[in-house]
Design brief:
The structure holds two protein chains of two kinds.
Chain A lengths: L1 H11 L1 H37 L5 E5 L11 E2 L1 H9 L4 E15 L6 E9 L7 E6 L11 E5 L1 H7 L6 E9 L4 E16 L8 E5 H7 L6 E2 L1 E6 L5 H11 L3 E5 H44 L1 H9 L4 H38 L16 H27 L3 H10 L1
Helix pairs in contact in A: 1-9, 2-7, 2-9, 2-10, 7-9, 7-10, 8-11, 9-10
Chain B lengths: L3 E12 L9 E12 L3 E5 L6 H8 L7 E6 L2 E2 L5 H11 E4 L11 H12 L3 H14 L15 H12 L6 E5 L7 H16 L4 E4 L3 H6 L2 E6 L2 E7 L9
Parallel strand pairs in B: 3-8, 3-9, 6-7, 7-8
Antiparallel strand pairs in B: 1-2, 1-4, 4-5, 9-10
Classes of the chains: A alpha+beta, B alpha/beta.
């Protein structure tokens, strides 16, 4: 009968109850979004980093991958040396360079990002349509793969030819490091911003036009034979080649964590505030509702209803508000996270596959569970206060009032 | 001689300052009252004479500051909140001036409430609730909510609720206070019928007609009993 009384109390003022549920839902949505924000970037980064199974990045000493334009010289020898390590699996070289596409008819130039890769072991893109490039630099024109933004911006299709240059003088309209390439496939790059036009070609072809000279790479992506010994492999690389820095996913994640600590703190504070708002909202509503029914509650106590059952009834009211709010908040939070993710994905320099908000079920359930617990706790004090009022005095005051 | 249901001995109730304004007030002063099973007692007197306080003490919703109240032989002052609540649930039925029905429940559900608290099975309490509503003349109004009932009908539901757990005693505080004369008469008749059927009644009232209907009238003044008279003795009673 007490659940029925709780239901009856909630349906007595339906508009007020719905508004309270909406308020809790907004609070829950904010809490969920903050949890998704706190964990989303970190998890998204880790997932991106490990997507192709290369848990190690080898960059010029003291730099992070693509943090500077510094390159590693003597790349072939170093690659061979690293590949010779007992703990090492595949080694994927990556050379990055800003290229200029020269429009044959107008001689107008536009900038694209170029990658030199070894297609046999690359971990930078996934083929969408067409065929993959081959490793041979001798093919003429060079067979390249590009992403959709490049095709759109240059008005090209798979099968078309591109004229690319490593350097372009806009005054004289002269170029250096020129090469002609044929687009053989459309790909999706994992680590580049979504709207950036990108072309990938065999490593040797890009090395041939690189202003820093041949046999250079920006970084190596390295696979460990045994995933449980990545740190050992990292240490071995740094010992073997002191001119490079090797960064493991774990180390990178620590650095990412440090860089994202601001977001996490912000998310924690806003999440805590939303939890407090949910708690106060339910407390306020339950208190108002109890104060309106103080005479009824005194009568229930007078006719023999136990304190425990009165408390149960009122706490149930708070719990129902919190649970309904949390369910609504889950839907609302996911919807807002989706919209915010879309807006924030245009943030400059971020990979297309990077998510700010990511639904991590355990964290979501914990946070929504916390909100529900807060809602239940919110009803306890007003419930206990109401159940503990002196019955005779309350009845007398109600009769006078 | 029938069994003693209520025995108040030298009962006193003083409200401390915090409870009643600037200085302590003694609402009931050394009152002794014994009620036997089957009696119908009216507590009458001017406003503020301590009648309602006395009723609260007799019904174990308040505790005397001195003296003792034995309800069915149990000293109310020795009980904790849980035991006193259980005692009220099982031994006492309350009827209030303002009915105090749960507005969101139907008449039948209101009557079921004390039975649900006492752990009576759903089917049994539903059946008894309808039976009691029939007894008070509301058999056809069981599914109506209080707002759909007149004042008199609401008071009848409250009386049915008071009878739900077959209490040893029914206490009523100004049960006709909110009703017009005609409706009040119906309630008075219902109380007479209840008593005739064996229910022990103690009624606090200003209503002359209700007081006249009682078998025993106890007059209170300034917190004391000033007159205690049996006006219509119970059949089979010698005192």
């Amino acid at each position: 009968m007490w659940p029925e009384l709780a239901r009856a109390a909630l349906t007595r003022h339906p508009l007020r109850t719905w508004l309270a549920v909406l308020g809790v839902a907004v609070s829950a949505a904010l809490l969920l979004d903050m949890v998704m924000l706190a964990t989303g970037m970190r998890d998204s980064f880790a997932e991106l980093y490990l997507k192709k199974g290369f848990p190690l990045r080898v960059a010029p000493k003291g730099t992070l991958p693509f943090d500077t334009e510094a390159t590693i010289g003597g790349a072939s020898a170093l690659r061979a040396e690293i590949e010779g390590g007992a703990l090492i699996g595949r080694v994927s070289p990556v050379l990055g360079l800003t290229l200029h596409h020269i429009e044959a008819r107008t001689a107008a130039a536009s900038t694209v990002l170029g990658f030199g890769l070894d297609p046999r072991v690359q971990g930078d893109y996934e083929l969408v349509t067409g065929t993959d490039m081959d490793a041979s630099p001798a093919a003429s024109p060079v067979r390249v793969v590009v992403n959709a933004p490049l095709l759109t911006r240059l008005g090209k299709r798979v099968g078309d030819t591109l004229t690319l240059a490593a350097a372009y003088d806009p005054q004289l309209r002269t170029t250096r490091g020129r090469l002609v390439a044929r687009v053989v496939g459309e790909v999706r790059f994992l680590y580049t911003p979504p709207a950036s036009p990108v072309v990938a070609m065999p490593l040797a072809a890009l090395q041939g036009v690189h202003p820093g000279g041949p046999d250079r790479v920006s970084l190596f992506m390295v696979e460990a034979r045994d995933t449980s010994r990545v740190e050992e492999a990292r240490a071995w690389i740094e010992r073997t080649a002191p001119r490079v820095s090797a960064i493991s996913t774990t180390t990178a994640m620590v650095q990412v964590e440090q860089r994202l600590s601001y977001f996490r703190q912000l998310a924690f504070i806003l999440g805590s505030i939303s939890l407090a708002i949910g708690f106060l909202l339910v407390t306020t509503l339950v208190t108002v509702s109890v104060n309106e029914r103080i005479g009824e509650i005194a009568v229930l106590r007078a006719i023999g209803v136990s304190k425990r059952h009165v408390v149960q009834q009122i706490v149930t009211e708070g719990a129902v508000l919190s649970i309904a709010g949390a369910i609504g908040g889950l839907a609302l939070g996911l919807a807002t996270a989706r919209v915010l993710n879309r807006i924030l994905s245009d943030f400059p320099g971020l990979p297309a596959a990077f998510d700010f908000f990511r639904f991590e079920p355990r964290a979501a359930w914990v946070s929504l569970g916390l909100l529900m617990l807060a809602g239940i706790a919110a009803g306890v004090y007003p419930a206990w206060r109401a159940a503990s009022l002196p019955v005779a005095q309350t009845l007398r005051e109600e009769a006078v009032g | 001689m029938t069994a003693v249901v209520l025995d108040a001995e030298q009962v006193e109730r003083t409200y401390a300052q915090a409870e009643r304004g600037a200085r302590g007030v003694t609402a009931v002063r050394g009152v002794s009252l014994r009620v036997h099973a089957g009696e119908y007692v009216a507590l009458v007197g001017p406003s503020g004479c301590g009648k309602s306080t006395m009723l609260n003490l007799l019904g174990a919703i308040d505790v005397p500051t001195a003296g003792r109240v034995l309800l069915d032989g149990i000293d109310v002052r020795t009980l904790g909140d849980r035991e006193a609540t259980r005692l009220r649930l099982e031994r006492v039925g309350f009827v209030f001036q303002r009915f105090y029905l749960m507005p969101t429940l139907t008449a039948a559900e209101n009557v079921e409430l004390p039975m649900a608290e006492a752990g009576v099975a759903r089917r049994e309490r539903a059946s008894r609730a309808r039976e009691l509503l029939g007894y008070v003349g509301l058999g056809d109004r069981a599914d109506h909510r209080p707002a759909q009932l007149s004042g008199g009908e609401q008071q009848r539901v409250a009386i049915a609720r008071a009878l739900a757990n077959r209490p040893a005693l029914v206490l009523a505080d100004e049960p006709t206070g909110e009703l017009d004369a005609a409706t009040g008469d119906d309630i008075i008749a219902l109380f007479e019928r209840l008593n005739a059927d064996g229910t022990t009644l103690v009624v606090v009232t200003h209503d002359e007609r209700l007081a006249t209907a009682a078998r025993r009238v106890v007059h209170m003044k300034d917190g004391r009993i000033v007159d205690d008279r049996v006006v219509r003795p119970l059949l089979g009673r010698t005192a």
